[in-house]
Design the sequence.
């Protein structure tokens, strides 16, 4: 007797079905909104990052599941809206699938990029074109989440500005910005570098 291999994506469909039922039959799930769930998205994303830092695959799998639940949850709520506010889980999946195809022309089109640097440059070029077609940005800050940690926020702004040498001075903010620029020039993620270093500090004595 032969056993058919599991169908890729079948568990995702089951997750969608479970969320649909919870939305109908669970009082807590039924009363949630995009706004009430906002803090959980951030919490789960941070827990995924913690699992990555820990290098624990079991923990990472578990935390990614929690983050995936938030995606499916928001999509389920979106499916109940009307007009332009309505979207469902298929719209979410279709949107990211289309984006991946557009931004990877070396795989799905006639792009010639081959090295990681060339592929990233092609991705950024397509992304910039998409922004122009939508009217462009009013400032370099547009589209960067204000809730990002400050070092990560600075890193993104500097990248958009073409990594200019920031002004230096005694102001602590300028000095921190200069360090982020230095990290970028060295190919180092300043946010990740600081987080990993802080984790190496010894625990304070109990008392």
Sequence:
């Amino acid at each position: 007797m032969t056993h058919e291999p599991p169908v890729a994506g079948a568990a995702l469909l089951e997750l969608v079905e479970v969320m649909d039922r919870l939305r109908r039959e669970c009082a807590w799930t039924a009363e949630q909104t995009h706004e009430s769930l906002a803090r959980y998205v951030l919490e789960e994303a941070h827990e995924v990052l913690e699992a990555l830092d820990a290098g624990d695959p079991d923990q990472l799998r578990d935390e990614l599941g929690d983050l995936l639940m938030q995606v499916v949850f928001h999509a389920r709520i979106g499916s109940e809206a009307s007009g332009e506010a309505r979207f469902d889980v298929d719209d979410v999946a279709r949107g990211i699938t289309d984006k991946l195809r557009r931004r990877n022309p070396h795989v799905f089109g006639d792009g010639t990029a081959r090295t990681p640097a060339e592929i990233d440059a092609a991705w950024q070029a397509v992304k910039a074109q998409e922004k122009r077609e939508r009217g462009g940005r009013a400032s370099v800050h547009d589209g960067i989440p204000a809730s990002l940690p400050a070092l990560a926020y600075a890193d993104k702004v500097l990248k958009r500005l073409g990594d200019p040498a920031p002004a230096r001075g005694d102001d602590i903010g300028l000095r921190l910005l200069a360090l982020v620029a230095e990290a970028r020039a060295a190919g180092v993620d300043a946010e990740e570098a600081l987080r990993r270093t802080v984790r190496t500090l010894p625990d304070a004595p109990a008392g």
Remarks:
- The chain has a mean pLDDT of 91.
- The two ends are 65 Å apart (CA to CA).
- Residues 168 and 204 are 34 Å apart (CA to CA).
